[in-house]
Amino acid sequence: KKNLVVAIDGYSSCGKSTLAKALAKKLGFIYVDSGAMYRAVTLYFLRNKIDVNDDAKVTDALQHIELNFHSRDYESHITLNGDEVSDEIRLMPVSENVSEVSAHKIVRHEMVKQQQRMGKSKNIVMDGRDIGTTVFPNAPLKFFMTADPKIRAERRFKELESKGNNEVSLEDVFENLAHRDFADTTRKESPLVRAEDAIILDNTNLTQDEQLAFAIEKVSPFL
Ligand code: C5P
């Protein structure tokens, strides 16, 4: 039987990774956080002062970046050239620069290639912005997640706060989300758009359990 890829796309901070992790755990699938890859590349560019407007530098840098996922109880952990960077890639310096880096054609090309390799023979749940449209356009099951922007900002703010991040305000988080939504939906290279065959999941008023139940119901015919 052929492997199954479940694609989950949607706006920033609307619970894609929470649902993707829960679904992967329930199904015994591998969870792949594609956003973490763009974030880790962004961190590398920041650390090494790579100018995104310099295509030659970008191409060269990508050859020096090795990303690996380490799944620990379905929490996605990512290493950048062997360094554990899972926490650092969630902080504001990366969040503020990731949309610009991820809009780069050469960066996307390389990440998509790596992502397609991961879904070639394994059962996976992958979340991101272009999974159902570009990475796995033939995935049999696609979700497109959305939620009220204010709710999304509050959720992300609480998450940052719980991790001891007290420097950012709710307004900063809201602005960053709005900026990333705009950048992600209007960029030239595979912009965030709902695949025609993606199932819309607006979770503004849904609990995590309700979202999981909804997703399981949609997946079961494919198992
Ligand atoms: O999912 P997350 O919010 O961590 O992703 C960070 C950023 O990475 C997004 O705002 C988007 O610019 C980029 N991204 C992307 N394509 C993906 C996943 C993430 O362009 N498949």
Automatic annotation (TrEMBL):
InterPro entries: Cytidylate_kin, Cytidylate_kinase_dom, P-loop_NTPase. It catalyses: CMP + ATP = CDP + ADP; dCMP + ATP = dCDP + ADP. The keyword ATP-binding applies. GO terms for cellular component: cytosol. Its EC number is 2.7.4.25. ATP binds at residues 10-18. It is found in: Cytoplasm. Pfam families: Cytidylate_kin (PF02224). GO terms for biological process: nucleobase-containing small molecule interconversion; pyrimidine nucleotide metabolic process. One of its GO terms (molecular function) is dCMP kinase activity. It comes from the Bacteria. This is Cytidylate kinase. It comes from Pedobacter changchengzhani. The lineage of its organism: Bacteria, Pseudomonadati, Bacteroidota, Sphingobacteriia, Sphingobacteriales.
